[in-house]
Structure formats: C-alpha cells, structure tokens
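Q: I'm building a small set of examples for a reading group on sequence design. Run inverse folding on the following structure and report the sequence directly after it, with nothing in between.
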C-alpha cells in the first residue's frame, strides 16, 4: 500500500482499533481515527502511530451512534483530506448476560453502537470513499455473529450477525462504484474489555483450549487481517467475505 493512502478507523484509540491504526501507520498511510471517551488514550495512540511511520496521525471525538456526530466527523475529514481510501468500522461495545438480565435499554445500546454505528459511519463517509479512486471498507464483526456458543449476550451476537449481513449487502450495492466491503470475525481477543476472563493461569488455559490452535488471539492478529482485506494489492478480487480470525474455533 503506497504512501498517500488515507485511512479512517472508528474506535482507534485502544485495543483492536489501536492495533489497526498502528498497522496502517507502518505502511506509511495517513491515519485518522475516532475515540469516544478517553482523549488521553487517543493522544497516546496518535503518538505511537507517528513513531511507526504514519504519514500523519490525527484523531477526533465521535459518537458512532449519533448521526450528527458522525456527519460532523466526515465533514472535518473531508475538509482536510477530500477523500478516504479505507474505512474500518471497528468501534463497538460488548455485553454479557442471559436474556433475563438483558434489558431493552441494553439491547438498544448494543445494537445502536455495533450495528447502526457502522451503518451511519459508512453512509456519512461514502462520498469521501467514492472520491478516492479506489476504496475499501472493513467491518470488525465477531465469531459471536456466526455461532451462539459464546459468553457474550444475545444483544451482542445479534449486533455482530447484523454487521455481517450489512457487509454482504453493501458489497453488492457498492461494487459498481469500485468499493469493496468485507468483514473480519475474530474469536476471543486479548483486550482490556475481556482481560478479566484470563486474569489467572487457569482461566487463560480454559480460553486457550477453546481454540484448536491453543492460543489467545491478539489485536495485531486482527489488524493484519484487516490490512490484508483493505489492500488492493492483496485483495482486489475479494468482496462480501468474512475472514475468520479465530484460531480454528469455527472451522466449518
């Protein structure tokens, strides 16, 4: 991926999002990412991206569940860059508990951030993608969208299944405009959000044993998959696909 490529990542201040920002930075891309609450995390992530070779690294506060916030972000990016080559819809929230413990407010919050958020961001940034010459969208889904055998709640699973459906439909709709749309579907990834599940050697071993490769996936593993799908050099004929980054847990 040549220098001059411009990438926008939602939720790029920590976890998987930060790893994605750093991977594109290493390729010399210009990277702009959003954060929601932790500005200090965003400052640190931007500094790390610059140290890794980003042509430029910028960030802005954005609530993916708010159309007004998303439109304002697209306006700011458009004024500075004019176009975007790669959009990564990564921002999301996780939720645990059975259906009895999941209130309507919980359900609506998870769906609005994880699924509606990707819809809103894609809709707002579409003009910037169309002006880029070549463009790619990568959505960060989850194994929870493909199997019910996960610890996350039904709300989370439904949001990620919906994101996979959105990916496939947009791949068809946007193909005539030269925009590819794919998704990655990780299994358990070692981030701050889930570290409580592996905070003892016994817990860590149990999670590792869920995966045939006997490993816990790292944010960098997901970032490499996103980078592969985004690049026309490696994936120009790939669209509407879900790349499973799950250490063999879902093999069918």
């Amino acid at each position: 991926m040549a220098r001059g490529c411009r990438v926008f990542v939602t939720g790029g201040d920590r976890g998987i999002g930060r790893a994605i920002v750093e991977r594109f930075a290493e390729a010399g891309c210009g990277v702009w990412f959003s954060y929601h609450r932790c500005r200090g995390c965003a400052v640190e992530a931007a500094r790390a991206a610059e140290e890794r070779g980003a042509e430029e690294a910028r960030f802005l506060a954005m609530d993916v569940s708010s159309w007004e916030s998303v439109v304002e972000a697209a306006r700011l990016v458009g004024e500075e860059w004019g176009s975007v080559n790669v959009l990564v819809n990564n921002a999301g929230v996780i939720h645990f508990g059975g259906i009895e413990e999941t209130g309507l407010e919980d359900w609506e919050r998870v769906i609005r951030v994880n699924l509606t958020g990707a819809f809103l961001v894609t809709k707002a940034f579409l003009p910037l993608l169309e002006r880029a010459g070549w463009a790619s969208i990568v959505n960060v889904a989850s194994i929870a969208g493909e199997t019910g055998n996960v610890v996350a709640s039904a709300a989370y699973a439904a949001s990620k299944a919906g994101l996979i459906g959105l990916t496939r439909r947009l791949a068809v709709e946007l193909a005539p405009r030269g925009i590819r749309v794919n998704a990655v579907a990780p299994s358990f990834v070692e981030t701050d959000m889930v570290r409580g599940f592996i905070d003892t050697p016994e817990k860590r071993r149990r999670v590792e044993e869920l995966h045939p490769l006997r490993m816990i996936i790292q944010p960098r593993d997901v970032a490499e998959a996103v980078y592969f799908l985004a690049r026309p050099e490696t994936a120009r004929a790939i669209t509407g696909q879900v790349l499973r980054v799950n250490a063999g847990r879902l093999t069918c």
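The two ends are 32 Å apart (CA to CA).
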